[in-house]
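Q: Can someone sanity-check these two? First one:
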Amino acid sequence: MGVAHSLVLEQTQTQKLIMTQELRQAIAILQMPAHELLLYVQKQVAENPLLELEESDTQWELPEAEPDWAEYFRDSDDLGFVPKSNIFGEGPSWDNFISREHTLVEGLLAEWGLIARDQKERHIGEFIIGCLDEYGYLRCCVNEIAVRLQQPSPEVLRILKAIQQMGPIGVGARSLEECLLLQAESLGLLTPEVKQVITNYLPDLAQGRFGHIARELGLTLPQVQAIRDTIRLLDPKPGRKFDDGEQIQYITPDVTVHKADNEYIILVNDSVGNRLHVSDHYRRILTDSQDVDDQTKKYVETKLNSAVWFIRSIEQRRITIYRIVEVLLKKQRPFFDNGIRYLRPLTLREVADKIDVHESTVSRATANKHIQTPYGVFPLRVLFDSGVDSVNGQGMAAKSVKRLLADLVSKESPARPYSDQKLSELLAEQGINISRRTVAKYRHDINIPASIHRRRYEQAKA
């Protein structure tokens, strides 16, 4: 016998957040740093005719009489004025162009063009240079290049050797060992012992196994250490010093904290928002014009709502950033007074609770933004840091602990560097309780090698 099922219609009331286009835009604006916001505003002004952006608040007064500009510019010697027709012919002056550094490939190609003796050498050399990576290493086999160019392998190898002698030395190497050997030979540092260590013992040297190398080569520990110091003079990535062709990015602080008379003033970089307003011309269409059809009015109303929401979103971004920095200024006052060593532990949640917003709002408002302080420009997220316990109960930010750790290492004896356990004990004496594992983690974060790599061996006196 089957079970009877009844169909019942029920109404339930629930609440849920719908991500409208306007809300998505407001969230995106909150996340934008100052330079991105300016570009986005310019894009919106171009797309929405109701938005207007004042170019400048400066009002220029025109002279009552039109000056004689031809007479004014006639004396080109005094003004530095260069006529369009110059010794180089028609066209703009080269002084108007912005230069940049050559990339590695560009520099090598230019130099090889002066060295190559004929078209064949030029072609092979250009192909080899085109196969170099950003660090200057050749990532193709000589035999592969020979097959590709239909040239004898010895000829390709000969040209590769010529390229390896061009600056910077080490470019064109096919391995780390070859790169270091080329540089050591060029600098006159390639002794038999240095050559043996580079060729056969680089992994042991990296792991600090000085004793093993000394026994294998019949050297003393100070001698192995001297070889290590010599190898450290060489550059394992000779091509990285060149411009990679990418445009340099400049930082525009999103907020500035300025000190004046022992008080701090917060300035949010929102000049673009102050210059943005709704066009009066289109506003009058909705209020005064009687001859405008309904379709046009509807279009203007849609664009007006979009413009108003856009301006409010920018203003809300400014208010949110200001309130966050206001809390940061109170919580991190020792940092603003004395520098990064005095950072205190602080989380996004603590700031969010203070200004009564969700933690994700603080996260978005501080992402990819920079703050200018009396001690330099920092990412805004620097002021948020995990912390460790201290004796006084206030806690200390991890960045501050790393600074203290670096200071301790800088003062240690080179012959007897501190172990991680000893560093933990020394920090405990200063009221900072962290484990040996945490010391090792912090030491790794600030690129301090282990004690075995920091140790210096002294040469025995005769």
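And here is the second, same format, sequence then tokens:
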Amino acid sequence: MKIKYLGENDDSIDLIKDKVYDVISVEKEWYRIIDEEGEDYLYPPDMFEVVEE
């Protein structure tokens, strides 16, 4: 699954606005993705738009 980050560029979250990320797993309805620092974290789905299932 591919998702696009809808939030703002924010120092507390290492994601880039409008960038498409690959979901590596879905856990309790949250998306696990690899951020810009190369770390994988869980994020709530309301921060993203699904662009490819």
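A (reply): Looked at the second one. The chain has no helices and five strands. The CA atoms of residues 14 and 37 lie 7 Å apart.
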